[in-house]
TrEMBL record:
Pathway: Cell wall biogenesis; peptidoglycan biosynthesis. Its main location: membrane. Keywords: Membrane, Transmembrane, Transmembrane helix. Residues 579-637 form the PASTA domain. Its EC number is 3.4.16.4. It catalyses: Preferential cleavage: (Ac)2-L-Lys-D-Ala-|-D-Ala. Also transpeptidation of peptidyl-alanyl moieties that are N-acyl substituents of D-alanine. It comes from Cytobacillus citreus. This is serine-type D-Ala-D-Ala carboxypeptidase. Belongs to the transpeptidase family. The chain crosses the membrane at residues 12-32. InterPro entries: Beta-lactam/transpept, Beta-lactam/transpept-like, PASTA_dom, PBP_dimer, PBP_dimer_sf, PCN-bd_Tpept, SpoVD_pbp. It is found in: Membrane.
């Protein structure tokens, strides 16, 4: 059948219109793909072609309050392999195994995996010498990326506080864990492109995304005080071979921890060499034990605040024991202390005397103050693993429990609780939250992005009560059981503690935790130091015998390192053999050399200057020194 020209033209017109419409739709689609989806599709394609070699960020440094590095990083390259680019798996595996001290079979198993990129297990954080050898081999598909590992320049110094980081630079313990998010930073990478066969596409440039380093962490720790503490703990460890030692130094006026240490210890860079219970337990904040007589400070504070005792006027007779609820509670001194003022009760650490104070307070008031001072709850220090201690439930406290609690037996507390509580007792009455981290600093700009400030929890006692406690505890060091912590020229207060250890519901024989907590200057405290020694061997197990001299040595050197000078007004020490009498330094400024020769002073003189008259002296007049000590005089012509 013949089709007319009109019909043909109509059909051609329709076909043309349809074709135009189809091409128009295609053009629109192509334009949409080109201009709107182009970047997305290109990025997707690049993602399929890309292979990332990660670049680890530098973990933030941890420094002390003066900027001394305590935890840093050292460069340690890591080996990566792109399996599809390895042309000779056997030869490559053999060379890598020889360099990395592992088996050829293990390496071959790793580099023949069906993965875009592989990290060799034995190739993580290798030495620069090995990295240089590997580069010289020029092995196809083998890459070396910059990496780092944690470095602790002082070894086991401050180990439980710092903690440690794992092979992936992740915090695992201590401050490294507590502030891991801030310290770890953000990974970067070098991105190169490869085809479906894994072969590198040389016509496409590599992309580099730099890592973002972690924040630096500045601590409240004073490395000078920490060094002194570590030294004294090492000496005590060698001398007494104890089961453990705990030490804390804190600023009582704000809660800043200046030093913290314990024994046994470990090297954070090699923590795998010790048992987990050693590195997992930061004893100053984790361990709980009966505090012994250091806890008497809390009973004393409560009795003074409630007006239950006048230390100088009230007297107490100690026959060596006290009967409470059918139990006979003994004083540490056989035969007792006899008649004494309550100031002497404190000086002598007399158990029956503190039982009397507990009875005057009553259990409700006594336990109220114990809880107000922070016992029975965490202090909130910014470290992992803090303990809470154990207190009697008030409804289960009978006369015996009240009595033993009053002198520090039957309750269980942590060392950090004791330090925080005693700080409140002597700083004017304010309980602070202890803390170790002071600032977080951006290493690129030096900007402080977080600054921790002192956190006062509550007012526990009045300033007047705190003054009385300081005076009483200063007399404990000068006149009482804390005499071995006495420091010539420095006004120091403190309290001894000797606590029996319990096991299986019974107290152990000749196995005590002996402790001492001291503070100075006694009239305006700037430093509190606590030391507890667990089961010291070869000595009398008393806090005044073992722990007090350790605190005295830490305190004396720390005060000097902090620039705190000796002060006038020190209470005369009660002399015991072989103590040497103290001499008050006279005022020598203004006298001549001739006049000086006519004076009888049992002190050595170190003179300097060309003149004839003393114009300056060190130490100042009024400071007390041992006979034979040296004073420095400066001479000039007035």
């Amino acid at each position: 059948m013949r089709v007319s020209n009109v019909t043909v033209r109509k059909r051609l017109t329709v076909a043309l219109v349809v074709g135009i419409l189809i091409f128009f739709v295609i053009d629109i689609r192509l334009g949409y793909v080109q201009f709107f989806l182009g970047n997305t599709l290109t990025d997707g394609a690049k993602e399929l072609w890309s292979r990332d070699i990660p670049f680890e960020p530098e973990r933030g440094e941890i420094v002390d309050r003066n900027g001394v590095p305590l935890a840093t990083n050292i460069s340690a390259p890591t080996v990566y392999v792109v399996p599809r680019q390895v042309k000779d798996p056997d030869g490559t595996a053999e060379k890598l195994a020889a360099l990395l001290n592992t088996s050829k079979e293990q390496v071959k198993k790793e580099i023949t995996q069906i993965k875009s990129i592989v990290t060799l297990k034995k190739g993580r954080k290798i030495s620069h010498e090995k990295a240089k050898e590997l580069r010289a081999m020029n092995l196809k598909g083998v890459y070396i990326a910059e990496d780092s590992k944690r470095h602790y320049p002082f070894g086991n110094y401050l180990s439980h506080v710092l903690g440690f980081a794992g092979i992936d630079n992740q915090g695992l313990m201590g401050l490294e864990l507590y502030y891991d998010k801030e310290l770890k930073g953000k990974k970067g990478s070098v991105k190169f492109y490869a085809n479906a066969k894994g072969e590198r596409m040389n016509d496409m440039a590599d992309d580099y995304e730099p890592p973002v380093d972690g924040m630096d962490l500045k601590l409240t720790i004073d490395s000078k005080v920490q060094t002194i503490m570590e030294r004294e703990l090492d000496i005590a460890q060698a001398e007494y071979n104890p089961d453990g030692i705990i030490a804390i130094a804190m600023n009582p006026n704000n809660g800043e921890i200046l030093a913290m240490s314990s024994r046994p210890t470990f090297d954070p860079a090699d923590f795998g060499k010790v048992a987990p219970e050693i590195y997992n337990r930061n004893l100053p904040i984790w361990s709980t034990f009966e505090p012994g007589s250091t806890f008497k400070i809390i009973t004393l504070a409560a009795a003074l605040e409630e007006g239950k005792v006048d230390l100088k006027k009230d007297h107490f007779h100690d026959p060596g024991y006290v009967k409470v609820g059918g139990a006979r509670l003994r004083c540490w001194k056989k035969g007792g202390h006899g008649s004494q003022s309550f100031l002497e009760v404190v000086q002598n650490s007399c158990n029956p005397g503190f039982v009397e104070l507990g009875e005057r307070l009553g259990k409700e008031t006594l336990f109220k103050y114990i809880r107000d001072f922070g016992f029975g709850e965490k202090t909130g220090i910014d470290l992992q693993g803090e303990g809470t201690g154990i207190l009697f439930n008030l409804d289960r406290v009978g006369p015996v429990e009240q009595a033993t609690t009053a002198f520090g037996q039957g309750v269980s507390v942590t060392p950090i609780q004791q330090v925080a509580a005693i700080s409140a007792a002597i700083n004017g009455g304010t309980l602070y939250t202890p803390y170790v981290a002071k600032e977080l600093i951006d290493p690129r700009t030096g900007e402080v992005v977080m600054r921790k400030t002192p956190s006062a929890k509550r007012k526990v006692i009045s300033i007047e009560t705190s003054d009385q406690i300081r005076n009483a505890l200063e007399s404990v060091v000068a006149q009482g059981t804390g005499g071995k912590a006495f420091i010539d020229g420095y006004r120091m207060g403190g309290k001894t503690g000797t606590a029996q250890k319990a096991q299986g519901g019974r107290y152990l024989e000749n196995n005590h935790i002996v402790s001492f907590i001291g503070f100075a200057p006694a009239d305006d405290p700037e430093l509190v130091v606590y030391v507890a020694v667990d089961n010291p061997k070869g000595t009398l197990q008393f806090g005044g015998t073992v722990a007090a001299p350790i605190v005295g040595k830490i305190m004396e050197d720390s005060l000097r390192s902090m620039g705190i000078q000796p002060r006038k007004g020190q209470i005369d020490k009660k002399l015991k053999w072989p103590d040497v009498p103290l001499i008050e330094v006279p005022d020598l400024v203004g006298i001549t050399k001739k006049e000086l020769g006519e004076l009888y002073i049992n002190l050595k003189i170190d003179a300097s200057g060309e003149g004839n008259t003393v114009v300056k002296q060190t130490p100042e007049p009024g400071i007390k020194l041992k006979e034979g000590s040296t004073i420095r005089l400066y001479f000039d012509n007035e």
